[in-house]
Amino acid sequence: MTKDKYEKIDENVKPQTQDQQPGVEAEMSPLPIYDDEMYKGSGKLAGKKALITGGDSGIGRAVAVAFAKEGADVAIAYLSPEEDVDADKTVELIEKYGGKAFAKRIDISEEENCETLVEAVVEQFGGLDVLVNNAGKQFPQQSLLDISGDQLRETFETNFFGLFYLTRAALPHLKEGSSIVNTSSVTAYNGSPGLLDYSATKGAITAFTRSLALNLADQKIRVNAVAPGPIWTPLIPATFDAQTVKKHGDNTPMKRRGEPAENAPAYVFLASNDSSYMTGQTIHVDGGDFVGS
């Protein structure tokens, strides 16, 4: 049986770590696949204005590229150092595919920063149609006793509070036909013994997605989520030890990790009119890791 291109990339992953979150994509080996050359845009997001948090790298970058291919203008928010080669590259990619790009370095865990971010995007683009809440952190601990109050707060402040604050700030600018897409995780469904606080934030995101979908249904604003499994993003070497990184994704039914580009079409689908009769739902992109309702 011939292996697909993603399996071949997976075989070449070397043991590696990075010493800061959210990690640097440019330092990964091999580089994640963020632009699937087989994916051709067809104007599904033509004229749309999108904001993606954690958009400089990983899944966020892949979504930004796919959105630009589909005709959207794309703003990315990121937390990396001020001289961020990842953010610069993502802006270059958005513009390469014809979209207007805007990047802002900002910490969305601060409530006032979320207001500032949305105002900046609306000023740049003249509106906002699609919000992708994708930014996240994770800090593995083998015991609940090892999770400090500071770690718990940092994880929730970025993964959930930031999502909540940003969605609230964006809502006055959204209108009928707008879409919110949240990044949940397979850990919200399968659990994770080493990521207790992280998986709890993703469970909160899933519940929030369902509840907000019901709350906004009358306004015809759809709210959905994507729950990725083990995906080759900077967060992986920035989180785990080298040997865990090497084996990441091996225990899925498909026996490999996924690539960011394999997630992007799900976000396009949920952001576009293709999913016009879907709200409160979650798409699982996880190599078969979770099979259930």
TrEMBL record:
Residues 1-29 are annotated as: Disordered. PROSITE patterns: ADH_SHORT. It holds the Pfam family adh_short_C2. The keyword Oxidoreductase applies. Keywords: Oxidoreductase. Residues 1-13 have a biased composition (Basic and acidic residues). Belongs to the short-chain dehydrogenases/reductases (SDR) family. This is SDR family oxidoreductase. It comes from Sporosarcina gallistercoris. The lineage of its organism: Bacteria, Bacillati, Bacillota, Bacilli, Bacillales.
